[in-house]
């Protein structure tokens, strides 16, 4: 009995040790990024590398805002992220509920057709979409970056549909007995139960919109419309030789999304585990 207990403890220690080593391996680039952002350019080229800055140069962070309008880029990115997240929440959840619960002729065919659009890479539709948005006057606005999210994203519809199918139908049947229609059942019964899956989808959307570089590069032309990704690229072009300022700017761009993931990790993991249990 005692040998079995020690064997179990040793196995757990080995697993945690392996996970700790892997975690350290993945976190090292972030630690080096933050460390470099607090150094002078002279400290960066010291060999062997100096992980802890001495002295710590906090002035690198306010200096970034003197060289580039990162507050403006932050505002633009926040607007795009908020609209994309709202669009995904409204459209994907509603369409997924229809595929999961409503009975209609050709529903399965439409679902397969929707999933087949995921096969097309963005590079195939990039030029036709640009021509379309250019013809209707959407270039150099936030509309090409946000409006498509209000028409559904196939991957997120699939994830939510899989989660909705795990919700017992008895709950919806009881709601209909009480007089709830489909929309009220969807809003008051299904959505509150689907918070883990919705958290996953909204987190994916937030990260994708926050880090998106290609779409803003294609559609945004005015400097006052730039996002953080474009602003960081411009900063790299103009001040790429000043590595301490560049790392400080990169840290400013990266930290908000890290905090979002850190505070939403419980819902994220729960949603990943529960989504897709039923096909």
Structural class: mainly alpha
Query: Strand count, sense and closure of the main sheet?
Result: none
Distance between the termini: 42 Å
Rounded mean pLDDT score: 85
Shape descriptor: flat
Taking all Cα atoms into account, the compactness measure Rg is 24 Å
Task: State the CATH class of the largest domain.
Answer: Mainly Alpha
Strand content: under 5%
Name a few traits of the molecule.
279 residues; mainly alpha; 15 helices; flat; MetI-like fold
Task: Describe this structure as you would to a colleague.
This protein is mainly alpha-helical and 279 residues long. The protein folds into two domains: 36 residues; 211 residues, MetI-like (MetI-like fold, Orthogonal Bundle). It has 15 helices and no strands. The chain is flat and about 70 Å long. The two termini are 42 Å apart.
């Amino acid at each position: 009995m005692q040998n079995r207990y020690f064997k179990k403890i040793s196995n757990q220690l080995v697993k945690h040790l392996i996970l700790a080593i892997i975690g350290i391996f993945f976190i090292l680039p972030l630690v080096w990024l933050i460390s470099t952002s607090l150094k002078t350019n002279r400290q960066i080229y010291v060999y062997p590398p100096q992980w802890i800055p001495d002295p710590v140069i906090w002035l690198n962070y306010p200096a970034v805002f003197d060289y580039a309008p990162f507050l403006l880029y932050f505002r633009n990115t926040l607007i795009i992220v908020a609209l994309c997240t709202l669009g995904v929440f409204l459209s994907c959840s509603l369409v997924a509920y229809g595929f999961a619960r409503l009975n209609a002729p050709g529903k399965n065919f439409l679902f397969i057709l929707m999933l087949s659009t995921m096969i097309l890479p963005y590079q195939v539709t990039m030029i036709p979409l640009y021509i379309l948005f250019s013809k209707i006057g959407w270039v150099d606005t936030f509309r090409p970056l946000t409006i498509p999210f209000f028409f559904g994203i196939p991957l997120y519809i699939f994830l939510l549909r899989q989660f909705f199918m795990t919700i017992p139908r008895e709950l919806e049947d009881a709601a209909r007995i009480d007089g709830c229609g489909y929309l009220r059942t969807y809003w008051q019964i299904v959505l509150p139960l689907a918070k883990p899956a919705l958290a996953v989808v909204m987190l994916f959307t937030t990260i994708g919109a926050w880090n998106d570089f290609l779409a803003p590069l294609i559609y945004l032309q005015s400097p006052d419309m730039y996002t953080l990704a474009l602003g960081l690229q411009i900063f790299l072009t103009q001040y790429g030789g000043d590595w301490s300022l560049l790392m400080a700017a990169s840290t400013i761009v990266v930290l908000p999304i890290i905090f979002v993931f850190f505070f939403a990790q419980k819902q994220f993991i729960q949603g990943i585990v529960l989504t897709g249990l039923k096909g």
